Amino acid sequence: MSAKASGVRSLKLDIRKLKILTAIVETYIETGEPVSSKMLTEKLGLQVSSATIRNDMAALFEMGLLEQPHTSAGRVPSHLGYRIYVDQLMRCEPLSDEERREIDALFNVRDPDPDKLLEDAAEALADYTNCATVSTTITPRTVQVKRIEIVPAGARTVVVLVIATNGVIKNKVCRVDFRLTNELVGFLNQFANGRLVGKPVSEISQYYVNSIAVTLGEYSAPFVPVLATIYELCREISEGQFYTSGGANLLGYKEFGDIARELLLTMNSRSDLLGVLASRDDAVFISIGKENSKSELADTSVVVTHYKIGEQNSGAIGVIGPVRMDYAKIIPHLEYFSQTLGKLLAETFEQE
To answer: Could you report the per-residue pLDDT of 104-150, keeping only the tens digit for each?
Structure first.
């Protein structure tokens, strides 16, 4: 729960008002249309008059839990109303066996490569929820270089692989200015592994790599491209992976008509979205509307969960959609989705 939600505890709502608020939220999520007292009377079947329900709706409006759009006779939930619903009233049903099979099937044809699996996960979840999604890895500062492999690919070309202790493998082709021999390749492998294995990837800076090169003395210049490539690969591992998908799905919601451009720009900004995802430690974190730190997301809700590889938080996957998203449906789906993703990534890393 967001820290900004603490103020809702001071609101006192009787059982009938809670039922009315729940019905308004769930009806608006389903229809996207303002909810009238007549609709509530028919939906709830309460043994009270329409006038009583109107009075309760007016009280909820005065508390800031409902809003009246334009001149409509109906009401819609406010962001605060959604917060009370999510924290106190919502009931998430466990996934059925069929729903679990549907999610499992999304991964059955996925590429076993870890990076591709994360990218595919974002795409599959966007298709499944009809929202925008983001998936990212989190690289703990304790992750170290496990092994470096420099493999000749031509007379003056090598493939450099960096393997980290969290199972991530990065590789890049590097061209050198000298003709390769088995002796030189052997020396490069021995030198790189001797200096970098066991070193945290987050500490392998450009300065550190330059200081290693200096120890080679007059022979350092030819090897600089290889060391620079190793640095780039370590930086990529340290930064983690980041994928988004489904930004165009947001264009299908009428509430985003005036802010579509700003939303799409935010969806393409790694720094903006990492700020939304990276600092959350909750098993499931929900940020509703104006609770979002980014003003561009003030009319959206963000639901984030972490996936684990073993016992370690290894990344986050989130859904970004309208404030009226179906939280009770999306949350259990997202939780199972992230559990499945973590399990598959763990299996992939074990195979490697």
So the answer is: 887 775 555 667 778 888 888 898 889 999 888 777 788 899 999 99
The answer on pLDDT for 281 being more than 90 is no
CATH level 3 topology of 97-138+241-351: Beta-Lactamase (3.30.450)
Fold of the domain built from segment(s) 15-89: Arc Repressor Mutant, subunit A (1.10.10)
162, HSE (Cβ side, Cα atoms, 13 Å): 29
The residue extents of the domains of the chain are: 15-89, 97-138+241-351, 144-239
DSSP string, 102-117: HHHHHHHTS-SSHHHH
The pLDDT tens digits for 172-231 are 999 998 888 899 899 999 999 999 999 999 999 999 998 998 888 877 887 889 999 999
The DSSP bridge pattern shows strands 145-152 and 132-137 to be: unpaired
- Return the exposure string of 271-302: e unless at least 16 CB atoms fall within 10 Å of the residue's CB, then b: eebbebbeebeeebbbbbbebbebebbebbbb
